[in-house]
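Final report, closing paragraph on structural work. Over the funding period we assembled a curated collection of sequence-structure pairs, and we close with a single example.
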Amino acid sequence: MPITRRRIFGLLAGGAALVGVPWLWMSRMKTYDGSASDHFNGLHFFDPDGAPPRSLGEVLRWQFGRGRQRATWPVWAPSPHADTPPAAVDGDKVRLSFVGHASWLIQTGGLNILVDPVWSMRASPISFAGPKRHNDPGIAFEKLPKIDVVLVSHGHYDHLDVATLSRLAKNFAPRVVTPLGNDVTMRSADPTIKVEAFDWHDRVEFGGGIAVTLVPTRHWTARGMFDRNRALWASFVLETPAGKIYVVCDSGYGEGTHFRRVAEAHGPLRLAILPIGAYEPRWFMRDQHMNPEDAVKALADCGAQAALGHHHGTFQLTDEAIDAPAKALVEALDAAKIPQERFVAMKPGQVVEI
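Its predicted structure, as stored:
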């Protein structure tokens, strides 16, 4: 595959969203400054049970090495679903609407909670390059109910979208809960974002029996050249009137340690939201993104009653085909002798109620 100027520019934009490829003009961005801990050395966060991010050399080997097989996605792949959510959901029910990629609207106990909201056309620091949407958000922004809380898992551009957070701040002024350091990114971009930063294992109450605990996940973060792992990343355990929901926005599998620990500390879990996409080639992606086989193992490890698959089909971050994750999930469930209805790959606009 020829190395062209267009491909290099696209790699830089997409890499910033996925693997933290350098952005020289962002070298002076502010970063977290706090006390050292068992996962922060005073400068960088780290996962004692994880793996470091890939090097720039490995990124270039993946992008330009011989034998790369990158599937071609359709330019536009609209979902057959679109949701218009109610103003609120009361009582002991939970309504989950899949917006796309890792974005969700979770309604319960009278609260409306967004997870990793991305309504922008690109998951990139610039508007003209980088991973572009292949379908519309499952909820039009104008049809959102009043948003009370936003959960942002980490700083990669396909999860922390400042443009969307600014729109939410202007329209709804929600509480934004995020791991340490990502608040610096948000405030630097827009001081009106009402962000609160927390460490792993911190529990945040929202009232009405609804709370969230930030838990370790096997991943990492960066937005520029000099901020690799200068902010923290996390998954969420959301307490609701219908039970606990384990929301994993990005994670590798490793030995399954993170998932078993969540089961031990927070079980039983009513539902798990697990990533199933952005996993090829495996030599490069296995430490930061699960494939469907890994996700099925993660479901068994965390012990959730059911799971919903996300992080696929909207932004082409890696090499697999647009429909490969959903197909591979079916095969992985069959191989593990798990009923198909227990773990469903979602499409934007689909709704699940528990």
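Helices lie at 5-18, 56-64, 162-171, 182-189, 257-266, 282-285, 292-302, 324-335. The two ends are 47 Å apart (CA to CA). We thank the funder for supporting this effort.
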